[in-house]
Amino acid sequence: MKLSVVEMGDRMVPRMMTAAAGQLIHKWVESQGVKVHLGARAEAISAAGGAMKVKLSNGQTLDCDLLISAAGVRPNIAFLEGSGIKVADGILVDKRMQTSVTGIFAAGDVTEAEGFHSGRPELNAIQPNAVDQARIAALNMLGGDTLLQGSLAINVLDTLGLVSSSFGQWQGVPKSEGGSSVELVDDAHYRYLSLQFAGDVLVGATSIGWTDHVGALRGLIQGRVHLGSWKAALLADPTQFMAAYLAAAQKVA
Ligand SMILES: Cc1cc2nc3c(=O)[nH]c(=O)nc-3n(C[C@H](O)[C@H](O)[C@H](O)COP(=O)(O)OP(=O)(O)OC[C@H]3O[C@@H](n4cnc5c(N)ncnc54)[C@H](O)[C@@H]3O)c2cc1C
Fold first, then answer.
1. How far is the CA of 249 from the centre of ligand 1 (A)?
2. Are 14 and 170 in contact (CB under 8 A)?
3. Which residue owns the Cα nearest ligand 1 atom 3?
4. Whether pTM exceeds 0.70
5. Bigger pLDDT: 90 or 50?
6. Where are the domains of the chain?
7. What does 86-138 look like in DSSP terms, one character per residue?
8. Which pLDDT score is estimated for 252?
9. Distance 105 CA to ligand 1 centre (A)
10. Does the beta carbon of 74 sit less than 6 angstroms from any atom of ligand 1?
11. Phi, psi (degrees; rounded to nearest 5) at 24
């Protein structure tokens, strides 16, 4: 099967991973025979006799037998109109997952819960966040007082066998806010690592070609672990993140 990907952004996975990571994934899929059209929107689809034609904004037309539209998700909240429940792009909730109407709770893709780093309402439509939020909503509906620690951005992809991931503030934070970073690019072996820090805390990460221990990146970020001297060690060699996790996050008191 000949596969073409049409992406309106200027690179692949623009809302999930760094530019260098997007370029490496692009190189990988092309090496596997996939044609990638960047900076192009699908503008019209026409069908004649079973075959389809997709007109792109760059003037090209693609012939295809099968078309998959994967252009994102949006909460379906129209049914709440007039209910008094406050919404923005999704249902707004407090840290207890309660909506603006006492006794009514919301969780999962449909909610805009507090972001882990931003502290502002964010849509983070992934399964681990839905599970966390549902558990907290359920505990509080039963009279508990459990607070959401904030929804974290998590992306894990398997692109034709190349595994990539990103967590938290993978875009980094400005230097003026204590931001610093390190990036390791190994084009030849399709390996990549980017670590983003605020002070001595890891706040975001992107990886390609790492299948072992990437959960440690999430652990360091979600634990808001102060790395101390391990930060300098990671700036010198970011591949040491598992050793940093064991030393800094799993410290025996
Ligand atoms: C193609 C795809 C791939 C994904 N891949 C991943 C992944 O790799 N990793 C990951 O973590 N997450 C992934 N997700 C996201 C994950 O599926 C969602 O985050 C998760 O299912 C959210 O759970 P939820 O219970 O909030 O919503 P849903 O699972 O969407 O459940 C909501 C349910 O409510 C029903 N419903 C809607 N409106 C009403 C109504 N008015 N009354 C009654 N019922 C209603 C719906 O029919 C649905 O069954 C993916 C999603 C999609 C679409």
1. 32
2. no
3. 126
4. yes
5. 90
6. 4-64, 78-141, 154-248
7. -BSSSEE--TTSB-SSTT-B--STTEEEEBTTT-SEE----HHHHHHHHHHHH
8. 59
9. 17
10. no
11. -70, -40
Q: Distance from the CA of 166 to the center of ligand 1, in angstroms? A: 21
Buried b / exposed e across 101-114, counting CB within 10 Å, b at 16+? eeeebbbbbbbbbb
With b for 16 or more beta-carbon neighbours within 10 A and e for fewer, the 35-72 pattern comes to: ebbbebebeeeeeeeeeeebebeeeeebeeeeeeeeee
Is residue 7 in contact with ligand 1, taking CB distance under 6 Å?
Answer: no
Q: Calculate the average pLDDT of the chain.
A: 95
- CATH classification of 78-141 is 3.50.50.60, yes or no? yes
- Residue from 176, 174, 181 nearest 231 by CA: 181
Amino acid identity, position 118: S
Equal CATH topology for 4-64 and 78-141? yes
Class of domain 4-64: alpha beta
Residue 8 CB less than 6 A away from ligand 1: no
Task: Give pLDDT tens digits for 67-77.
Answer: 999 988 899 99
Tens-place pLDDT, residues 151-181:
999 999 999 999 999 999 999 999 999 999 9
Q: Any idea which fold 154-248 has? A: Enolase-like; domain 1 (3.30.390)
Ligand 1 atom, smallest distance to 128 CA: 11
Beta bridge partners of 194: 183, 206
Using 50, 70 and 90 to split pLDDT, how confident is the model at 48? Answer: confident
pLDDT above 80: residue 253: no
125 pocket-lining for ligand 1 (C-beta < 6 Å):
yes
